[in-house]
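Supplementary Note 3. Input sequence used for the single-chain structure prediction.
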Amino acid sequence: MKSTELFNHREFHEAFAREIERCRRNDTEMSVVLLDLDDFKDVNDRIGHLAGDAVLAEAAERVRSVVRTADVPCRVGGDEFAVVMPESGLEQAEQLFGRLQSAISGRPIGQAGRLHISAGVAELKPEDDSISFFERADQALYRAKDAGKGRAFTADGHAA
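The predicted structure, written as discrete structure tokens, is reproduced below.
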């Protein structure tokens, strides 16, 4: 399989917890964007898993192309990606979603054609630990998919 050259699931959770602690120590904001490729199972069914792996690698490259150097892009599983955004509030995370959407959906990816992404966006709250923070972003992602895909929702329930 062609590598996405992104942090994996385990590395994501380690970096996520580390960045939460660093942002708390420095009293700075932090956000996360959790996204996935809409209907990716259909892509694998249509073009096969090897070609699907190449699509994932290209999507990962497009993610890397629009994040800041301070951001931590990860592949957290299957067709799901996350970008940890230290020292960033909700507005910067929403802007990143726009850049991700343009980069991934703006032109076809290999044999898959034009893909769309859905995302959940969350900002670190004082009461969050790494689990609750991640779960809020994950629930926002599910709301985005339920609302018709190709969009992002914030953890507080509004469309990004």
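The chain has one domain: 9-154. The helical segments are 9-26, 40-47, 49-66, 90-105, 130-146.
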